[in-house]
TrEMBL record:
Localization, UniProt: Cytoplasm; Golgi apparatus; Membrane; Secreted
Name recorded for this polypeptide: EF-hand domain-containing protein
SUPFAM superfamilies associated with the record: EF-hand
Residue ranges with Basic and acidic residues bias: 181-205
Entry keyword set: Calcium, Cytoplasm, DNA-binding, Golgi apparatus, Guanine-nucleotide releasing factor, Membrane, Phosphoprotein, Repeat, Secreted, Signal
One GO CC annotation: Golgi apparatus
Organism: Mytilus galloprovincialis (Mediterranean mussel)
Protein family: Belongs to the nucleobindin family.
Length: 310
């Protein structure tokens, strides 16, 4: 999706790209879907996306969003600027919140029926909005939504990583148990094949984290044909118009994610827009959208040696 939601789901979206599924029968998907179509896994997923989409239609709030660092977005401080949002969008936010409050009321009634009024409803399902004010969407609602989503997505990410570790252990256990059932000659062949697959995995081209020093040095050495030992970040950014990635890649982000005219693409402006903290360097959050293609090469569904690996 766009910047707020993109920052919130970055961990999960990257995890979905580079990891095979936890369920043994499920098939991994090549690459990742556009953020707006991707289910965050949150119980209030629709509400979160509707709020973000409405806010980013306001040019003043969008500009403020672009000027705000990632930390102040994720801790909810950006909510103090809700007052600048246009009246029409504020009314739409009010309606979005009222629908969410109605949904929660219906959910609460259904749970009360199933529990026969014996057990108290878990109030954590209400922490993503201000229930004391069910009529209008205020700064407190935005702050609570962002903080809750950030926390919940972090927990989901940890859970999925733990499940993936268990998945790997289970697959290895199943492999060893299967080997035990084979005749001696077949055991040897199966082990040799396993060793071969492991070697292919080890020999698979390593992916340097996008924006890391190692990745920049690779571009410096292989693309720019410069001495790796003489790598200089400032010179590198000047050579590349202050940005990384192919011109086509960056223009695509400029047009589809930044919603700007492709004919007006300007490298330095692009870099400044995506260098959120102004440190002259693109960190993990800032470059997530720029290097999707490089991330895609981590997992090739047609390569058997990659089936059970991150």
């Amino acid at each position: 999706m766009k910047k707020v939601l993109g920052l919130l789901i970055i961990g999960i979206s990257l995890y979905g790209i580079v990891c095979p599924p936890v369920k043994p029968d499920a098939k991994p998907e090549e690459g990742g879907s556009e953020t707006q179509d991707e289910d965050t896994g949150l119980e209030y997923d629709r509400y979160l996306k509707e709020v973000v989409m409405a806010l980013e239609e306001d040019p003043d709030f969008r500009k403020k969003l672009e000027e705000t660092n990632a930390t102040d977005i994720k801790n909810g401080k950006i909510s103090m600027h809700l007052e600048m949002v246009a009246h029409g969008i504020r009314e739409r936010l009010d309606e979005i919140k009222r629908r969410e409050v109605d949904r929660l009321r219906i959910l609460a009634r259904e749970k009360m029926k199933t529990m026969n009024g014996i057990q108290k409803i878990d109030e954590r399902i209400l922490h993503h909005l201000d229930v004391k004010n069910p009529h209008s969407f205020e700064a407190k609602d935005l702050e609570k939504l962002i903080v809750k989503a950030t926390t919940d997505l972090d927990e989901l990410d940890k859970k999925r990583k733990e499940e993936f570790k268990e998945y790997e252990m289970q697959k290895e256990h199943e492999r060893k148990e299967y080997i035990k059932t084979l005749p001696e000659e077949e055991k040897k062949k199966a082990e040799e094949k396993h060793v071969e697959m492991e070697k292919k995995h080890q020999d698979h081209p390593k992916l340097h984290h996008p924006g890391s020093k190692a990745q920049l040095e690779d571009v410096w050495e292989k693309n720019d044909e410069m001495d790796r030992d003489n790598f200089d970040p400032k010179t590198f950014f000047m050579m590349h118009g202050m940005i990384l990635g192919s011109k086509d890649q960056l223009e695509e982000v400029w047009e589809k994610k930044d919603h700007l005219d492709p004919n007006d693409f300007e490298p330095k402006t692009f870099f400044q827009m995506h260098d959120i903290n102004g440190d002259g360097f693109l960190d993990e959050e800032e470059i997530e959208a720029l290097f999707q293609k490089e991330l895609d090469q981590v997992y090739d569904p047609n390569a058997p040696e990659m089936t059970n690996r991150v």
